[in-house]
Amino acid sequence: MADNPEALPWLIRLDKFIDDQQHEGITELVVRSNNSQTALNEAVALELLTEAGLASQEATAVRFTFNDSSAKLRLVIENPNDEWVATQFDEESSDAVGQLYKAESTGDWSYRGDDPAEYEEVWDQEAGEDDLAPLTDFLQFVNDSTDEEFAAELATRLDVEAFARYLAVEDLMGNFDDIEGPGNNSYLYFDPDTGQATVVAWDHNLAFSGGVGA
């Protein structure tokens, strides 16, 4: 793959060298890896998430080249960050930005105490004030609460309706690489006013059986 950079996944920051440079309000773009000839599976998956009222990413198909390489059909999507959070969760009129954390493929959802260093390899904060407390508090609740505490407090700590829709849509799309999959693909967003968590979908190039060779 190193000999074919046009086929690699890319993260492009438009404001890396020019302050405030953006395209239609988007500052970070991800050039996705294709596991199908057209990448339509991921494009359709993102549309379905939006139609289901769930947080999703804008996407477009592009003709992608690197220097003088041959052109490849690729799907480009916005990378979740502060601006994405403000738009997706209607925070544009608020002074506060909710925290957004990305689950790493090497991690899990275990509670590792309140030392931020214990989470460096398993979670990455992508938006909001630099603070892991919302995440660690939630993980402690999920892992250490009694059955009675879990039942009584779950609806105040997690957007249960959105999570149920998320699970249903992921199952409908046959996406085995979701929150339960080997890639641990998901984000956790925490509302700045209520502290309630929302599971955010990510990485759908394997949706609709879009595996290697599909």
Structure description:
With 214 residues, the protein is an alpha+beta fold. It has one domain (5-209). 26% of the residues lie in helices and 18% in strands. The chain contains five helices and eight strands, in the order ββαββαββαααββ. The strands form two sheets. A four-stranded antiparallel sheet has the order 1-2-4-3, covered by helices on one side. Strands 6-5-7-8 form a four-stranded antiparallel sheet. β3 and β4 form a beta hairpin. The model has no long low-confidence stretch (mean pLDDT 90).
Helical residue percent?
25-40%
Cα end-to-end separation: 18 Å
The radius of gyration computed from the alpha-carbon positions, rounded to a whole number of angstroms, is: 18 Å
What's the number of domains? 1
Strand content: 15-25%
What is the makeup of the main sheet? 4 strands, antiparallel
Low-confidence stretches: none
Structural class: alpha+beta
How many strands appear in the DSSP assignment? Answer: 8
What is the string of helix and strand elements?
A: EEHEEHEEHHHEE
Q: Which shape, going by the Cα principal axes? A: globular
Sheet with most strands: strand arrangement = 1-2-4-3
Output the number of helix runs: 5
Provide the residue-averaged pLDDT.
Answer: 90
Keywords:
alpha+beta; 18% strand; 214 residues; 4-stranded antiparallel sheet
Please render the helix and strand layout as text.
Layout: E1 10-13, E2 28-31, H1 40-51, E3 59-64, E4 72-78, H2 82-88, E5 99-103, E6 123-127, H3 133-144, H4 147-157, H5 160-172, E7 187-190, E8 197-200
Antiparallel strand pairs: 1-2, 2-4, 3-4, 5-6, 5-7, 7-8
